[in-house]
Amino acid sequence: METATTEQVTIAYFILVHRFPEQFKRLFKALYNPENHYLIHLDKKTGIGIYEDIKDFLTDFPNTYIL
After folding, report:
1. Could you tell me the residue range of the domain that residue 32 belongs to?
2. Burial per residue of 14-42, b for 16 or more beta-carbon CB atoms within 10 angstroms, e otherwise
3. Average pLDDT for residues 29-53, to the nearest whole number?
4. Is 42 contained in some domain?
């Protein structure tokens, strides 16, 4: 008889943000798992204020990268 083995699945998320940083934060908190990876693309039309806000927010979460 074979036994089932459990393996950790790693997921990579690609999230595009161009406005509504508070909505992004809610989504990100709901999705976040420290075992996964997150690539956040901030549209180049996004203002510097939104960029800085999201950059500061993500400092508390490992495995996050900003494009």
Report:
1. 15-66
2. eeebeeebeebeeebeeeeeeeeebebeb
3. 94
4. yes
